[in-house]
Amino acid sequence: MSTYNPTADLEIAHAMADAARSACLPHFRTGPAVENKLSGGFDPVTVADRASEQAMRAVLAERAPADGILGEEFGETAGGNGRRWVLDPIDGTRAFIAGLPSWTMLIALEYRARPVIGLIDQPHIGERFIGWPGGAEYRRGGQARALKTRPTRRLGDAIMSSTDAFLFEAAVEAEAFERVRRSVRLCRFGFDAYAYAMLAAGGVDLVIESGLQIYDVQAFIPVVEGAGGVVTNWSGGDASEGGQVVAAATPELLDEALRLLAPAAL
After folding, report:
1. What is the pLDDT of residues 117-126, one digit of tens each?
2. Contacts of 250 (CB under 8 A, 6+ apart)
3. Number of domains present in the structure of the chain
4. Which of these, 9, 97, 168, 249, could form a disulfide with 174 (CB 3.0-4.6 Å)?
């Protein structure tokens, strides 16, 4: 396959998510051994991370063998057709090892260097959020409904989220984030990519983060945009490669947040 087919590609994404669910759920809340991938810090990985990505790669080997793959645990497999699947087998491994059900699995299809399909899956709760150009959907069991962001336009009315209150190591970033935090109605921490799913579902209005990798961001961009939201970097440009990221329910809310973040934008 060398083109983009929303129906067929969504079927592939769902097959990968189903396989990854079966691979990682048996390890949740069982106290799996944890390895640290980062010298001088803590970047955990478990057998569940690896089993999840291996399950997704096995589906691709059968159903889309010519496609490229970029996965957090097993790196890049080159393809030659302009298509690449970007995989984060467990986003929120810290939550996973703590037994908290806020971790997710992230699947994105990148076509001609842009994410065109995104899937956020929470296996323990059984929730799945899917996005594509022009639409987004929530699924749980036999339930399915369209996703739509809230019409929030002012920071003073907004609910904001970020993964960690101490995510912003640079002082200028921390100060910029604090300016936004003081301006919103409510701020909640600790939800990793699940916060972006909640933005698409109309719960959260704004997510601000920094230091993200490509496999952290590619999946949620089509979900948020398909639900009517916007995603940029702190300068208002393309966020699909990671780094500083802002996701907002409306363009007006994004513009207000960007004005406060501008002094720290890279």
Report:
1. 999 999 999 9
2. 149, 151, 152, 153, 228, 229, 230
3. 2
4. 168
